[in-house]
Amino acid sequence: MGSLPHRAAATAIFCADCDSDGSSEKRLLNTGGSPPPSLKVAVSSPQSGDLKFRSRRGMESKGKPFSKLVTGDNGYVLEDVPHLMDYIADLHAHPNPLQSNPSYSVVKQYFVNDDDSVAQKIVVHISSPRGTHFRRAGPRQKVYFESDEVHACIVTCGGLCPGLNTVIREIVCGLSYMYGVHKVLGIEGGYRGFYARNTITLTPKSVNDIHKRGGTVLGTSRGGHDTMKIVDSIQDRGINQVYIIGGDGTQKGASVIFEEIERRGLKVSVVGIPKTIDNDITVIDKSFGFDTAVEEAQRAINAAHVEAESTENGIGVVKLMGRDSGFIAMYATLASRDVDCCLIPESPFYLEGPGGLFEFIERRIKENGHMVLVVAEGAGQDLVSESMRSTDVKDPSGNKLLHDVGLWLSHKIKEHFAKKPNIFINLKYIDPTYMVRAVPGNASDNVYCTLLAHSAIHGAMAGYTGFTVGPVNGRHAYIPFYRVTEGQKKVVITDRMWARLLSSTNQPSFLIP
Ligand SMILES: Nc1ncnc2c1ncn2[C@@H]1O[C@H](COP(=O)(O)OP(=O)(O)OP(=O)(O)O)[C@@H](O)[C@H]1O
Ligand SMILES: O=P(O)(O)OC[C@H]1O[C@](O)(CO)[C@@H](O)[C@@H]1O
Ligand SMILES: [Mg+2]
Questions:
Q1: How far apart are CA 451 and CA 97, in angstroms?
Q2: Confidence label for 2 from pLDDT (cuts 50, 70 and 90)
Q3: Where does substrate bind (predicted)?
Q4: Using CB atoms within 10 A of its CB, is residue 453 exposed (0-12), middle (13-18) or buried (19+)?
């Protein structure tokens, strides 16, 4: 296969009036280079004949995501990310300064081959198509920014997550040590900080030990995403690389910022770094901070277990984070082995009657004299709403505010056993959610954060934009924004991992009410 193109003139470009699968090629538009025999590029656009990127907003209304597809032999598809050259004609490439960097120049094959892509699916059958791929992350031979031309900024949005400060640190230090970039601004207080707050100058010295602290030195917020004001601020300040760290909402915000920047034709790379303690961002293997959270949750589960086994009929209830996805609860349960029951949003449960939670608790208490229950904050929200007859309340970003399922469940369990004269229970409820979130990243998360930051920097320097960076099957890749915002990763309760959990706790599956 020939070089994977990131610009119109590099190879055969086909403009597609996208079919539902987004893959139909209609007509050849530009053949600046010879088209490799088996490679076709389809930039989905509502207007045939126009190689420029179209805004996704217009297309979203028709339900068609913006995409830049490259197809090859045997069902190979590259879901490529935008490049500045897609909408700026006269960009100049420069040799990558890493070539003469004493630390990196010794590495054999340090630069990533432009043909490299990362497969989304690695378990395949002999006859299955090669399927979706993403552009491999890493340093390129050529960069599209000169070191002293770069003016970068970093912003953190959404909830806290262990490792946020590490990512900030590594972007600042990576830009400086690898590319000689010295102008980096920190935007305070999330998206609204672009237009309503001061900025902080970030240097390797000022961020030197921030990875040892929880939270984010830049501050964060929900809501306040005003695209026009944000892009005005980027333009007015002369910022040309924007590093945006945050969850699914933040990546949606980054996507519209990219669209507006592209509409204005600005030479600004917009890079998303996925952050979610809930591990609910799709496509990527795992989000930073997740391992730290699972580890920190062990302390709460251990405490609940100690309390429960120290009294007669002791019950420990621990609430962990997980708004829509129960990964923290599932992994913390599997890691601990002291948990008797784990409740997650993906697996509905019920309290009363045969096969219900109360029946199981009674049985387990009779067998063991104590039990530990872990509940993800998003589990059983329908039951709580029903019993409290409450209406939906939302946070400033539009996320539904959750009821305290741990407190509600503890109350319900106490109420149930109060009706049983022979069983006196002793229930302790532990809510460590914000403690789990506020710690610094652990050692392995810190290394992971470093790799994310470096991959982000290499992508921006190489002129890529409009992408989120993250590991796909262990290899870092550049993923178009729409792929990480179109859905949420959830625990699949028909998969082996959940079966392992059910087998480890021996809890009911609650499948038959
Ligand atoms: N669809 C959207 N378009 C533009 N901006 C958005 C969108 N959704 C969310 N945002 C903005 O992104 C920021 C963060 O969103 P949100 O509070 O949902 O957190 P998040 O990034 O999903 O992280 P967390 O995992 O902590 O929930 C907010 O400033 C919000 O205004
Ligand atoms: O109280 P806050 O800051 O809105 O954050 C709570 C939410 O943030 C998350 O940790 C996601 O970042 C969810 O698990 C949780 O529901
Ligand atoms: Mg979110």
A1: 19
A2: very low
A3: 276-278, 321-323, 377, 434-437
A4: buried
Whether residues 446 and 413 share a domain: the answer is no
Range of the domain at 402: 290-439
Q: Is 17 a catalytic residue?
A: no
pLDDT tens profile 214-261: 999 999 999 999 999 999 999 999 999 999 999 999 999 999 999 999
Say whether 110 counts as a known binding-site residue: no
402: CATH: 3.40.50.460
Q: Are 188 and 259 contained in the same domain?
A: yes
Report pLDDT digits (tens) over 101-138. Answer: 888 877 777 899 988 999 999 998 999 999 999 999 99
Residues 417, 445, single domain; the answer is no
Please check whether residues 295 and 415 belong to one and the same domain. yes
Summary count for the chain: helices (H), strands (E): 14, 20
ipTM comes to: 0.98
Based on the fold, state whether residues 304 and 372 are members of the same structural domain. yes
Instruction: Note whether 364 and 480 are same-domain residues.
Output: no
Residue 477: strand pairing partners = 136, 470
What's CA 123's distance to the chain center, in Å?
23
C-beta 316 within 6 A of ligand 2 = no
Angle ∠(227,231,237) on CA atoms, nearest 5: 150
What's the structural domain count of the chain?
2
For residues 357 and 405, state if they share a domain: yes
Task: Spell out the residues 6+ positions from residue 65 whose beta carbon is closer than 8 angstroms to its own.
Answer: 22, 44, 56, 59, 482, 486
Which pLDDT does position 107 carry in this prediction?
A: 79
Angle at 277 between CA 273 and CA 278, to 5 degrees: 110
Q: How far apart are CA 158 and CA 277, in angstroms?
A: 11
Which of 80, 86, 114, 278 does the annotation list as catalytic? 278
Shared-domain flag, residues 466 and 337:
no
Structure tokens at 212: 């040892």
Q: Is the CB of 295 under 6 A from ligand 2?
A: no
Q: Which of 212, 278, 190 is nearest to 439 (CA)?
A: 212
The reported pTM is: 0.90
User: Is 70 exceeded by the pLDDT of residue 4?
Assistant: no
Ligand nearest to the CA of 434: 2
Those residues with Cβ within 8 angstroms of residue 476's Cβ, 6 or more apart along the chain or in another chain = 118, 136, 137, 138, 451, 452, 455, 469, 470
Is 437 known as a binding-site position? yes
Which of 248, 280, 320, 321 to probe ligand 2 with, by most ligand atoms within 8 A of CB? 321
Q: Which atom of ligand 1 is nearest to the CA of 395?
A: 17
